[in-house]
Amino acid sequence: MPLIGDMQTHIPVDLLNTPEGQTADKILRSCVHCGFCLSACPTYGILGDELDSPRGRIYLIKNALEGNEVSANSLVHLDRCLTCRSCETTCPSGVEYGHLLDIGRDFIEKKSPRPLAQRVLRWSLRKLMRNPGLFNFLTTLWPFAKHSAVNLKLKQLVDAAAKQSYPKQVLLVSGCVQPALAPNINLATRLVLQKLNIGVIETPQSQCCGALEHHLSASEEALKQVRRNIDAWCSELDHGVEAIISNASGCGVMIKDYAHLLKDDAAYAEKAQRVVAHTMDISEYLLKQDLTPFKHHQNRKIVFQSPCTLQHGQKLPGQVEHVLMSLGYQVSPVKDAHLCCGSAGTYSIFQKAISEQLRDNKLANLLVSEPQVIVTANIGCLMHLQKGTETPVKHWVELLVEQP
After folding, report:
1. What is the helix (H) or strand (E) element at residue 137, kind and residue range?
2. In principle, which of 252, 373, 380, 393 could form an S-S bond with 343, CB 3.0–4.6 Å?
3. Exposure of 50 by Cβ count < 10 A (0-12 exposed, 13-18 middle, 19+ buried)?
4. Could you read off the pLDDT of 343-394 as tens digits, one per residue?
5. Residue-range definition of the domain harbouring residue 201
6. Pairing between β-strand 279-281 and β-strand 198-202 as defined by DSSP bridges
7. Are residues 204 and 314 part of one domain?
8. By three-state DSSP, how is residue 253 classified?
């Protein structure tokens, strides 16, 4: 067990002269080896292997960046990380583990390439989920893959309200898979905002936030998509849009990271900061509004699963619960609420056994209070949890448009 103190690094000069090397060196040096992260790490809790903890993975990344030999086994341990960032919430030294992991995965994957079958699968997933036409077509062929069909009454209300004029407008990030898998989330969000006299412009499905490529080590493709989004969204801001709203916390945390991703891009750094400054989770935005019209669900018993991307990534713990309780809902407490449900984007595909164990653990804690419904704030968590329970799982915004 190393003594507590700043980590010493010996990164080669050529790497240290790059933006990635400088960022990694700064993050590594902030780690004091204290081990607080171990208790917050879902994979360490299940596997009990130091290399499947944040501290262990930090040493693997440090070892690789310092020019030592790496193997496919190093990538296995990094791949098992959910990127839930619970360790960041726990860390007393403010180690930016998520940013270090992105650098480490990309670096190690280049030094020790994946087997061909893995590369093909990961490429296929990126192309499928980023192609709205193909993805929507496949969900039509396989309706069982969807969470729900369009609520026609809800759609009629939204379409009718859209014909009105509004004193202010927001841009709603529709997501790349959410419109096909759970279309009522965006419909409910639009109706809630329209009832508050706020107009809504919805982004096209093709404007994926870039998280999929970014977390599958296709960093250059991710940055191309990020720049396209920034150009499109800055244009909307120029035309009077008040805020960029995300109702999927996984997308929200990615968008809020645009400024970091493009901090060294002279052409986009300032524009990225502008987008980040205007981006809000739907709960952040609604907390600034008068929600009196929605206070009609007194004492309905529910439970909220707080996505890691909301509580750890966006640093908004307890915010959705606050909104719901202010509207009269009875929100039950959840044991180990800080731990991941196991969804984590494509993690449930590549790490199926760990993902399902984490889901079962999460559902056991969510269902203790026998809630009428489980609500969450991210499409990935919603789809993942619903596969393990008969209790309905919804986005929390959907509750606001239900009839009392």
Report:
1. helix 132-141
2. 380
3. middle
4. 998 999 999 999 999 999 999 999 999 999 999 999 999 999 999 999 999 9
5. 128-286
6. unpaired
7. no
8. helix
